[in-house]
Amino acid sequence: MAIDLKKGLAAAPCPVDENGREVLLSIKHIDITFGKGDNAVRAVTDASFDIYRGETFSLVGESGSGKTTIGRAVIRVNPLAAGEIDYKGERISGKISHALDREVIRNVQMVFQDPAASLNERATVDYIISEGLYNFHLFENEADRVQKVENMINAVGLLPEHLTRYPHEFSGGQRQRIGIARAMVMEPELVVADEPISALDVSVRAQVLNLMKKFQQEKHLTYLFIAHDLSVVRFISDRIGVIYKGRIVEVASSQELFDFPLHPYTHSLISAIPIPDPKLEKHKILYTYDPSIHDYSVDKPEFVNIGHDHWVYGNKKEIEEYKALRERGIPVKAITITQGEIPETPEAAEDVNAESQFLAAPVHDTGSIWYSVLSFFLPIIGIIAAMLFKKHLHYRNYKACKKGAIAGFIAIGVILVIFLLLLILAVV
Length: 428
Fold this sequence. Notes:
Layout: E1 23-34, E2 41-52, E3 56-60, H1 67-74, E4 82-87, E5 90-91, H2 98-107, E6 108-111, H3 125-136, H4 142-155, H5 172-184, E7 190-194, H6 202-219, E8 222-227, H7 230-236, E9 239-244, E10 247-253, H8 254-259, H9 264-271, H10 278-282, E11 284-285, E12 302-305, E13 311-314, H11 316-328, E14 336-337, H12 346-360, H13 369-377, H14 379-391, H15 395-427
Parallel strand pairs: 3-8, 3-9, 6-7, 7-8
Antiparallel strand pairs: 1-2, 1-4, 4-5, 9-10, 10-13, 11-14, 12-13
C-alpha cells in the first residue's frame, strides 16, 4: 500500500487483518546480527508479530534475549539482516526515502530504560522537550511552542518552573517523566517503551505506568512495551510476546498467556513471579527451563497459531501436545507450592486456600480499599457485591466488600443501640 507522504503517515489508513483489527506495526521474520564473519552474533532470529492500533503489546524475556534490539530496530537504529518491518503496510526498514524516514521519526517515539543516560545533561528541560518541535516545526510561533511545552510538563506531573532546570537536578522518576514528555509532545501514534520502570523505585513505578495509561486513553496511543517483569506486564498488556535468545516462542493475549502458558520457557517465567506472601513464596517450586528437552534435529520447529489467537513455537509433535492441552480448556498451573514441613493445621489449610485464590485471581481482582469504603456506607449492597465477586472468583474484591459491609452493619448496630438508650432515658 503506497502512502501519500504529503498528507503524512498519521493520515494513512492501517491494513486490516482477517479479524477486522487494524495492524499498525508488523514485524516479519526479522534477523538482527551484530559483527561480521566469524565474530558475528545473531541477536534476533526469525521474529514475527503484529501490533494492533490502540493496544499495548508487551515483549518479555530475560536480560539479553533481544527485546531492546527489536525495539531499536523499530525506530530504525538497528539495521536488519533479514526480514522487514512494516508501519501501516509501508516498509520502514532498510533504505527508505528521506521523507518517509522523517515521518517514521515523527510518528514513532521511544521512552528509554535509563532516564539519566537518555537525557542531555547540558540542556535545559525546556530544550529537551522542545527539540522535536524545533526539528519538525510543530509550532506556529514562540508562544505556541511555550504553550505546548508547558501543557506537556503539566500533563506529566511536573511544574513550568522545572523547565529552566537541568536533568541532574531531578530524581529518577522525574527524569523518566521528562523522557515521557519529550516523546508525547511529538503526538506520536506508536511509542516504544523500553523497560521504562525498571530503573525506578517501586513506589514510583505505579505513577509512571498510570501516566502512560492516561496518555494512551487520551491520545489513542499504541505501545510496544518492553519488560522482564511479568507481574507488571500482566496488568497493563492487551497481548504479550515471549522472547528467548532472540526467538519469539509464544504470543497470546494477556489473560490467555497466564491461563495457558504452553511453551516451557513461558512456564518458567511465570513460575518466577514473586508471591506477595512469605509463607507461600518460601514453599514455591521454581520451574527452570531446560532447552535440551526439545529435539529439533529432524522435526523442525515452526511458529504456529494453535487457535484462540495463541501462537507457539515448536515442532509438529510439540504443537499437537500444545493444541490438546489448550483444547481441554483447563488452565495450566504454572506456579506450584508444596506444603513441605508445614504442619497440618487450620493455618496451613488457610495458606493452601490463599494459594489457590492467588493463582485463580482474575486480572481485575485488586481488592481495592474503595470496595471496603463503599460497602461500609452501603452494607446491604456491599454484601450483594461480595456474593457476586465470590461467584466470579474475585476473592480479593469479595473480602474487601465483606469486610466493609460487616463493619457497616456493626456501625449501624452501635448507632441503633445508642439511639434506643437515649430514647429510654428521654422517656424515663
